[in-house]
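The following record pairs a protein chain with its ligand, D-malate.
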Amino acid sequence: MTLSFTHRFEAASAPGRPPLLLLHGTGGDEADLLPLGRMVAPGAALLSPRGKVLERGMPRFFRRLAEGVFDEADVRARALELADFVGEAREAYGLEAPLAFGFSNGANIAAALLWLRPGTLAGAVLIRAMAPLSTRPEADLAAQPVLILSGAMDPIVPADNAARLARQLTAAGASVTHEVLPAGHALSQADVTLAREWLASR
Ligand code: MLT
């Protein structure tokens, strides 16, 4: 189906599970996280868009000025554009609000989406996420379940930045679980296990 983002969609095979919105990291695409989505949420509908920003040919969900330095005007505009896509896809495919499952740049846009269009997501798994905005908007995130999985040896995401994101989301009312794994920036088996367990308990 043609919607405002190039994307892949897999219909649910197990009723009753919320859909997953899969958000890839820098250089990924809409095919990247489908196998992982099937692992962490067996039977759930999977909606997987490709980021529209290109950085030296690599798809991303928003522009950055340098590693870890974000173009925040673009973060805001792109988060709203992604929220609009989620609305379109919900209507086109008959979906309830999805849980985001984002890795790295995909986790960062998911965090921005939580702040900027509350209600778009039913919650989020944020893997190797950073706080995407220096001044965060007022938002009531009550009842938003969020799992943040950070890497203790992550060379890209400073530990205090991920901790700040967890604090900010908690202060806005979200129900946050923040785990720091003995890992770097890359996904590990522990991420898959913890995400699967957390999603199963939704
Ligand atoms: C970002 O730019 O969103 C973060 O630095 C993570 C990354 O994509 O490497």
